[in-house]
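Researcher: I've got a protein sequence and the SMILES for fe (ii) ion. Could you write out the 3D structure of the bound complex as structure tokens? I'd like something to compare against our soaking experiments later this week.
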Amino acid sequence: MMWRRIRQFVAACKAEITPADEAFTSDFLNPVEKSLFDRLDAVTAKHSINTARTVLRLAQSYNLSATEKQHAVKGALLHDIGKSLVKITKFYKVFYVLLGRFLFIGTWKPPHTIAGVNKFLYTMYVAKNHAKLGADLAEKAGLDSRLVRLILYHHAENSTDPIINIIREADELN
Ligand SMILES: [Fe+2]
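Model: Sure. Here is the predicted complex with fe (ii) ion in place.
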């Protein structure tokens, strides 16, 4: 788990969105979904695109309908949209990956998001709660409720929803 995170982090440092990546996202996302996706920083966007490509590959071994496959790819592209609420810089990523999950940091929302300590606490809060915050963003933007659910539960283990399991598996591979 930890090694995977470190590997992801190293790979993410050289994130570059190619024209093929751009075409891929535009193929699958409608304009409203795409405008949400475009809020992501390059590192998270690249991770999401890679996750979506893996979802497509994994979907071949599941008996998904065309619509389900479409939802799975959209869900993969938007699963981390909650992280767009703050700029989670490399410093925060390293801190959160190495220490964040061992601490209570991130479990509460600081009253303000101004610079300094509050910014740090708010970033940790977003990192920890990005699934719920992302689902809220998606709902507010009027996205399909199926998609909102995929974002909300993308870290849920042993879900009864096969699409959530595919996204989670793909997420872990990227
Ligand atoms: Fe996530």
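Model: The pocket of fe (ii) ion is lined by residues 79-80, 130, 154-155 (CB under 6 Å). The CA atoms of residues 11 and 121 lie 26 Å apart.
Researcher: Great, I'll pass this along to the crystallography team.
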